[in-house]
């Protein structure tokens, strides 16, 4: 029942070692995540600066092609297009989206190729007048392309995997046009 200094010292050392180990572990984890976050923010800042520099240094566009999706004069305003008798290829985009910028020449070519079969519309997701439409459709990424058929109250989401080529999107548009012909023939 006496005071055993050696035993108290050993218990104290075990507690201290455990506390020190936990503290070192926390410091190591925080340091690792801190470096990763620092590197992530540096890389993100470099990427954003590179994009901004590319746009600034592009100089005048001698090809006459627009640089932003909103500058392309393709299709009709969304609410007008939704009153169409034809299916509508609707592009939901943001002007700052690099993928949207790259998709626009494809979208333009499609609008020329399918002008007799489809109507076309673009929706800038940052435009306040489309806020409800964007929310109701559930747009989560850009570009998002739908075939919307007001006549049959039908909506088909096109996979982003096919948006890289005219042929990829054309195959889906042709397939939908065939289905619509069948629906139209049964309705008569």
Could you explain the architecture of this structure?
This protein has 188 residues and is an alpha+beta fold. The protein has two domains: 59 residues; 119 residues, Glutaredoxin, CATH 3.40.30. 54% of the residues lie in helices and 12% in strands. The protein contains five helices and four strands. Strands 2-1-3-4 form a four-stranded mixed beta sheet, covered by helices on one side. The mean pLDDT is 83.
Shape: elongated
At the first level of CATH, the class of the largest domain is Alpha Beta
Mean pLDDT: 83
- The residue fraction in helices comes out at 40-55%
Largest sheet: 4 strands, mixed
Residue ranges: pLDDT <50 for 5 or more in a row? Answer: none
| Strand arrangement across the biggest beta sheet | 2-1-3-4
Number of strands: 4
Strand content bin: 5-15%
Question: Mind telling me which CATH architecture of the largest domain this is?
Answer: 3-Layer(aba) Sandwich
- The rounded Rg comes to 29 Å
Describe the secondary-structure layout.
Elements: H1 5-56, H2 78-81, E1 88-93, H3 98-113, E2 119-124, H4 131-137, E3 144-149, E4 154-158, H5 166-187
Parallel strand pairs: 1-2
Antiparallel strand pairs: 1-3, 3-4
Feature tags:
188 residues; alpha+beta; 2 domains; single chain; 54% helix
Q: Quick gist of this model?
A:
The protein has 188 residues and is α+β, with helices and mostly antiparallel strands.
